Amino acid sequence: MRIHALTTGLVRLKHAFLYASTGWRRQPDLFLPGEWCPPVPIHCWAIEHDDQLILVDTGETANVHDIPFARFDLSENDELPAQLAAAGLALGDVDTVILTHMHGDHMDGAVHVAGPVLVHEPELAFARSFGARVVQRLLRQPVPAGVEFRALNLDGGPFGAFSQSRSLSADGRIVAVATPGHTAGHISVICVDDEGRHVLLAGDTTDTIEQLRTLRPDAVSPKVKVTVETMRTILAHAREHPTVYLPSHDPESVTRLDAGTTL
User: Fold this and answer.
1) Do the beta carbons of residue 249 and residue 43 sit within 8 Å?
2) How far, CA to CA in Å, does 8 sit from each of 47, 89, 141, 212?
3) 196-232: b or e for each residue (b if 16 or more CB lie within 10 Å)?
4) What pLDDT does residue 22 have?
C-alpha cells in the first residue's frame, strides 16, 4: 500500500475558526473582523493498493471564491490533475473517489473526475437540502455542476472504536468510518498500511493534531458535543490500534505520514 498526499493549494483561516469562542458567539465571530492565522495546506489523498487507486477528497480549484472566514491561494497547477501527475499518477487510473464531506475545499476538484463520487448518504442529502443551498449561494460555494455524486451507506458494522463503517477494498484494509461533527455526515478513511498501522485520513474532524488532543472543536461544527465525541472515539481507537492521524489542513500531516508517526 502507498498513500500520496496531494496538496491543492493553501488556505488562510480566521483565528475565530480554529479557536472558536464558546456560547452564542461561536459562529457569529466567523463573520466579524478578526485576526487571521498563517496559511495551511489543502490536502487530499491518493491510495495505491492491490491494483486499485482510491482518491479521498478532490481538493480545491483555482476559481474558488474567498469566504468571510477563509482566504484561498492556489493556481491551476495546484489542482488535482497536476498534483496527481506530480505523484506519477493520472486521473484515468482512479478507480474510486470518496469525499469526507461536501465543503468546497474537499469537493470542488471533483469537476476533474469522470466517474461517480461517493458521499456518505446523510452528507449528500443535507447538501441538497434547501437550507444548504441557500448557504452555498450566499457564500458563492455551490456544489460542482456536472459531477455524479453517489450516496454511500456505512452498512458494514463497527470497525475498531467506530460504530459505523464500510469497506472500500476487497481485503478490508481500506475502510470508511463515521466521524460526524464538522458536518453531520462527515466520514474518514482508515488505511491499514503494510506495517499494520491505521492511517486515518481524517478530513476536517479537526484541523490539527493539537485540536484533537485538546478536544477543541472548530467554529463551524453544528453540534459541539458530537464533534467532541468523535474526537474521543478517534483517541479511543488509537489506544487499541497504532494510528497515524492525518487531518486535511494540518501542516504536519505529510511529515507524520512519511515517518509513520502514531498518536
Assistant:
1) yes
2) 16, 15, 17, 23
3) ebbbbbbbbbbbbbebbeeebbbbbbeebebbeebbe
4) 86
Q: Would you place residue 236 in the very low, low, confident or very high pLDDT band (cuts 50, 70, 90)?
A: very high
φ, ψ at 230 (rounded to 5°): -65, -40
Q: Are 203 and 186 in contact (CB under 8 A)?
A: yes
- pLDDT of the residue at 23: 86
Cell 493553501 maps to which residue?
Answer: 10
Q: Are strands 117-120 and 149-152 parallel, antiparallel or unpaired?
A: parallel
Q: 247 exposed, middle or buried (CB, 10 Å; 0-12, 13-18, 19+)?
A: buried
pLDDT tens digits along 21-65: 888 899 999 999 999 999 999 999 999 999 999 999 999 999 999
Judged by DSSP in three states, 23 sits in helix
Give the C-alpha separation, 21 to 6, whole Å.
32
Cα dihedral across residues 164, 222, 206, 87: positive or negative:
positive
Q: Are 12 and 38 in contact (CB under 8 A)?
A: yes
The dotted CATH code for 2-259 is 3.60.15.10
Q: What are phi and psi of 69, to 5 degrees?
A: -120, 15
Residue 1 C-alpha cell reads as: 500500500
Which amino acid type is present at position 79?
E
Collapsing DSSP states into helix, strand and coil, what is residue 49?
A: strand
Strands 52-56 and 165-167 come out as: unpaired
Sign, CA torsion 218/230/223/151: positive
Q: What is the DSSP letter of 159?
A: B
In the chain, what are the domain boundaries? 2-259
